Q: What sequence folds into this?
């Protein structure tokens, strides 16, 4: 029982990270039709900036405060980097989807290589507050505390995003744009400003996932973004491109399935079963769980 | 006909490469007949052919696959495992690998081609990822996991083993690139080849004309994948075994970069792009470690010593400023010349009349 609880919470924590990456990917694809391969780069940049800031805020003695400030730096860096990418690289190629995908591919290669050049190939350790590595007892299981942070962050982001999309003017424009971009443009609304905003939100969420992955693995390495990105892609496609709630549901399913299969069947099988799940979902419901056609 | 003669001439000139005893200054690290240079050239040629097999899918048929690495890896790993772990004879292993390279894309292709566009890209990515995980997992210690698997050199024809025989590997790689070139030339000019290009331009219209796109797409998928598997066997011989980096998603992305740099939907563009990318990837690393770069300030030194950074930036620049890649540049030059001549021809009577 206690193992099951631990696996469930860990799976939810993993799913939370997938959701943080997938939400941005899904919004960007839904609104702009861009499959963003640079999303992993946003994640890696955020995680590295947080690590870098943390190792330079030596004047602050409280480890927790230092870490929170550093994490905020990382999140800001992710959002700004993503917004700049949209403005400089994506916008000039407006409506040329294949070229936009290619540019994000080139950007992800270049960014990862640059980070390797600056900070080296080896992983960098995060200096974390002590309480993150301690455990809490729930239903007889000892749960590492960092899992709660991940789950809480994902739930807060999901609630925040849904509220933003539902109750603000920009949220309305984004929802309308996902539904029918041509119509929004025809009504005289400059949908391109929403593009930058969506990229910034995606970069913020990806950087958050990066920092949290740093907490989860207590280190960060240049390949982190790429390895998480593949699973985030799978989550987005299973959930249905453009649907935030679909992504959240798919992230939970994928995270749990991966943990259970890795433990109860054999290590490595979890990843394979996620791939299999994707193939099955796409063949039965080509539009993903939320049912939008992904073409 | 003239183009055919040029292509034959290039192949012939390349075939005599191991006989050239001179170097090309800083371009290579030694004279052209030295084993190190010949091995680099052999790998360049394998990737030239491989990039062209990817172009059959992406450039000619419009199928954006993110799993092409899988079929190359099948060639590398199945052949290596059959020789080294199962102790099969070399030719049996090659025949078996070719059979796998034919059956696997038929099965996976008919599954993944049921969806199109981005979904197709994701399914192929997922299948390739499954292959990568399988290699990492190292079942029964067959694949060697992260360390890879060196081949058993006693079971490989001796003409491909040893430093002195590097030129044979080079000829093998050249033969592979030429084979892919000929097959791709023939296939894209055949009647299915025309349907591929029609599907790329407008799949709906092909359906309206009464053709079913599915068998044609499957044919392109199987042909490209099968040729990639053959390339995997050649690559395995060239580098002396298998390593897991050929299974990764980044490897497929590198193929995409090669094709786009060379020029999508052309024959010699990807050949050139594949060779150029591989050359730059290997050589820029050496240049980055050189003395001249070390003396630069950090702001310049760090980016310049990362080949993938430079290639990524080059790739973005090509997408922005040179759509059509290197091949597109040549075509545009030719078309520009033609347009200029036409303009002159149009102006001449006007001048005479005035």
A:
């Amino acid at each position: 029982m206690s193992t099951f609880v631990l696996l469930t919470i860990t799976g939810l924590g993993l799913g939370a990270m997938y959701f943080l990456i997938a939400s941005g990917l899904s919004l960007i694809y839904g609104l702009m039709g861009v499959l963003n391969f640079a999303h992993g780069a946003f994640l890696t940049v955020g995680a590295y900036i947080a690590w870098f800031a943390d190792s330079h805020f030596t004047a602050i003695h409280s480890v927790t405060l230092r870490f929170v400030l550093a994490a905020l730096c990382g999140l800001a860096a992710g959002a700004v980097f993503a917004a700049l990418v949209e403005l400089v690289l994506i916008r000039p190629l407006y409506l040329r989807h294949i070229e936009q995908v290619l540019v994000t591919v080139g950007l992800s290669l270049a960014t990862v290589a640059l980070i390797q050049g600056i900070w080296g190939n080896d992983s960098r350790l995060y200096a974390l507050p002590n309480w993150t590595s301690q455990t809490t007892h729930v239903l007889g299981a000892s749960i590492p505390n960092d899992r709660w942070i991940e789950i809480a962050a994902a739930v807060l982001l999901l609630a925040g995003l849904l509220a933003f999309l539902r109750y603000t003017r920009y949220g309305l424009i984004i929802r309308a744009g996902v539904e029918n971009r041509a119509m929004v443009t025809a009504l005289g609304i400059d949908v391109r400003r929403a593009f930058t905003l969506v990229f910034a939100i995606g970069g913020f969420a990806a950087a958050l996932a990066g920092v949290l992955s740093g907490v989860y693995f207590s280190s960060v390495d240049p390949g982190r973004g790429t390895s998480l990105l593949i699973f985030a892609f799978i989550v987005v496609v299973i959930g249905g491109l453009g649907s935030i709630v679909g992504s959240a549901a798919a992230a939970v399913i994928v995270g749990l399935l991966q943990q259970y299969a890795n433990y109860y069947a054999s290590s490595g099988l979890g990843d394979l079963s996620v791939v299999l799940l994707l193939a099955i979902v796409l063949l039965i419901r080509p539009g993903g769980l939320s049912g939008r056609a992904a073409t | 006909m003239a183009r055919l003669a040029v292509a034959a001439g290039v192949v012939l000139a390349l075939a005599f490469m191991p006989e050239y005893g001179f170097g090309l200054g800083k371009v290579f690290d030694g004279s052209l007949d030295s084993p190190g240079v010949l091995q680099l050239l052999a790998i360049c040629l394998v990737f030239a052919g491989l990039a062209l097999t990817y172009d059959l899918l992406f450039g000619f048929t419009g199928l954006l696959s993110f799993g092409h690495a899988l079929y190359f890896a099948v060639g590398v790993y199945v052949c290596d495992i059959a020789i080294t772990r199962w102790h099969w004879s070399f030719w049996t292993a090659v025949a078996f690998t070719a059979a796998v390279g034919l059956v696997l894309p038929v099965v996976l292709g008919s599954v993944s081609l049921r969806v199109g566009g981005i979904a197709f890209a994701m399914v192929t990515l997922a299948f390739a990822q499954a292959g990568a995980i399988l290699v990492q997992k190292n079942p029964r210690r067959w694949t060697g996991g992260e360390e890879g698997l060196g081949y058993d050199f006693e079971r490989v024809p001796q003409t491909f083993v040893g430093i002195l025989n590097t030129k044979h590997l080079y000829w093998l790689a050249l033969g592979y690139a030429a084979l892919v070139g000929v097959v791709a030339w023939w296939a894209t000019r055949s009647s299915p080849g025309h349907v591929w290009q029609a599907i790329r331009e407008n799949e709906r219209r092909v359906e309206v004309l009464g053709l079913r796109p599915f068998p044609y797409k499957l044919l392109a998928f199987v042909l490209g994948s099968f040729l990639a598997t053959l390339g995997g066997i050649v690559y395995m011989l060239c580098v002396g075994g298998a390593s897991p980096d050929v299974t990764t998603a980044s490897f497929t992305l590198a193929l995409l970069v090669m094709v786009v740099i060379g020029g999508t939907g052309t024959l010699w563009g990807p050949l050139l792009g594949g060779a150029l990318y591989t050359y730059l990837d290997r050589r820029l690393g050496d240049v980055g470690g050189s003395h001249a770069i070390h003396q630069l300030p950090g702001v310049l030194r760090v980016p310049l010593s990362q080949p993938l950074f430079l290639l990524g930036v080059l790739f973005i620049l090509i997408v922005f400023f040179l759509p059509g890649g290197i091949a597109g540049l040549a075509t545009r030059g030719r078309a520009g010349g033609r347009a200029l001549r036409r303009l002159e021809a149009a102006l001449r009577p006007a001048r005479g009349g005035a």
